[in-house]
From TrEMBL:
It comes from the Bacteria. This is Strictosidine synthase. InterPro entries: 6-blade_b-propeller_TolB-like. It comes from Tianweitania sediminis. SUPFAM superfamilies: Calcium-dependent phosphotriesterase (SSF63829).
Amino acid sequence: MISALKARWDAFRGSGEAAVTVPPMDGALRPNQLLEDAPLLCAIAAPDDLAVRSGDLLVSSGTEIRRIRADGGTDLVKSFPVEVTAIAASAGGTLAVGLANRTIELVGGKPDGLVLSTLGGRSAVCTTALCFNGEDQLLVAQGSATRPVAEWKRDVMERRATGSVWRVHLSDGKDQALAQDLAWPFGVAPGDGGQTIVSESWRHRLLQVGSGTAPKAVLSDLPGYPARLHRDQATGEYWLALFAPRNQIIEFVQREPEFLKQMMADVDPAFWAAPALKPSATFLEPLQGGAQKHLGMLKPWAPTRSYGLVVRLSSDFRPLGSFHSRADGTRHGVFTCLRFGDHLVAASKGGDAIVELARSAAVRPVPELEFA
């Protein structure tokens, strides 16, 4: 009752969940060109996820998983009849593959050939992220209980929250729900003390979840939509990818149900006022023309529906620095960033590129304030 009254009061005042406000990128998240200017490691169509398996760097692209060679070329590791939606590798060499046909396949190691098709008795319809916690446990993020990964844009615009996170014991196939009713969990990583860290994309935050405990926000009000996160085993820090920026126009449209309904019914999804993975390329898209360009040039600070952003987080989830590809850049839609040996690599799905980042460049000390 109280929550219903609060929702009505917020809607009347334009506060709380009804507020159309976007946090600025400042401090450790101050914009730069580090992602846009980073050396190209490999050019590949729409790279989605990355994993390190037995010393090899693997990337999922469409229906294939490929190994990236030192010269920037790739070798086919395995292909599937449907799109690959997530991958992860264990220290022992087992590869877990989330597929668009509502299954998760295990390749190599002791569970080789195991296929998971249900979680909690329901179809594994939307596997967005996978992570091994040892050789026997697999952490699984399901973005939605009803929609496949390909329909992410519809899910974010309707602000759905039917996602969940699971722990699967591969030895016997038993699963355990760690959190449910999440707004598109898009990343999962092991935390301290047996906890699991989850990126909840549509609510712009990181959560700490565990069996029998309520989810706890450890980093909130991010300026973009968080995707996958990976823990750096050498330092205990985390690398978080954000695949698109928050935008006041988008968040306004999300709160106007009649306009939203008509837009989704009459307009091609590519032209919705919604987050995007690539920069604007046609006058049919929103935020084009005079809203973005000045004297015929696209400015880096122009309003944009796509962006490239990787954030370095301390072990207690404090932002330490970031890599950016701004409105006038091309390396947008970053879904994954992880450590590979002495390298830090990021996959830009919108930019068709895997780039190598310098970890030291992400350290941005925040100066202490001095008062007269």
